[in-house]
Amino acid sequence: LKKIIITIDGYSSCGKSTLAKQLARELDYVYIDSGAMYRAITLYFLQNRVDWTDVAAVKAALADIHLEFVPNADKTQSDIYLNGENVELPIRDMLVADKVSEVAAIREVREFAVARQQQMGERKGIVMDGRDIGTTVFPHAELKIFMTADTAVRVERRFKELYARNKNITIQEVKENLELRDFIDSNREISPLRKAEDAIILDNSELSMDDQLRLALQWVDDVL
Ligand code: C5P
To answer: Which of 12, 109, 129, 142 has a CA positioned 20 to 30 A from the CA of residue 19?
Structure first.
């Protein structure tokens, strides 16, 4: 059976990674969370007090950043490692979420991340989720999905996820962060969040996880 590239883009907390993981498991593909790369870079910038408004400082920092996806117990999934350290948990913190869209708008940061993402897709058999995967990273992907969901649904999902780890978090804070990131991601100059012309829209506000998987598998069948 031929292997393809599947891209999943969309607004924050639409359930992109849930669908991407489901598809990777079902098809025995590799799942790559491109947002984890921007988050890990942001974590490094924060930890090392990098002034990311200074291009030279950004370049020097990127030269020192080594990112790697290492498969974890679930073989279709992986954890992201920043200079040898598993940062899968700290990159989900609000401190990182608050700054990641600013960092992800920087040209040098995007070039660094996109080059690695394209390398990982060379052998196909990959599902990658993000904001610009169907438009910039893999413009020739065989299947492109653009996910949306109602804001209230998205806020609630992300709140539940974050609250499980941090009881101090508030709904308001989560809502503001999602709206801010969506705004910056959609309005930045380089590779803004857009639906690729040939992407299929998937609104999962009222779909169960089984429903969305069944739909997406149908689309996979259609292109195979
Ligand atoms: O997917 P996630 O919400 O973890 O992504 C975090 C942030 O990383 C996004 O809000 C966006 O600013 C950035 N990002 C991006 N391009 C991607 C994936 C993520 O700019 N392909």
So the answer is: 109
Is the model's pLDDT at 74 over the cut of 90? no
Among protein residues, the one with the nearest Cα to ligand 1's atom 12 is 101
pLDDT in tens, 129-169: 999 999 999 999 999 999 999 999 999 999 998 999 899 99
- Contacts by 178-183, CB closer than 8 A, 24 or more apart: 178/11, 178/12, 178/13, 178/151, 178/154, 179/151, 180/101, 181/12, 181/97, 181/100, 181/101, 182/11, 182/12
Query: What is the DSSP code (8-state) at residue 203?
Result: E
Cβ of 132 below 6 Å from ligand 1: yes
CB–CB of 205/153 below 8 Å?
yes
Q: For residue 55, how far is its CA from the centre of ligand 1 (angstroms)? A: 20
Q: Is the pTM of this model over 0.90?
A: yes
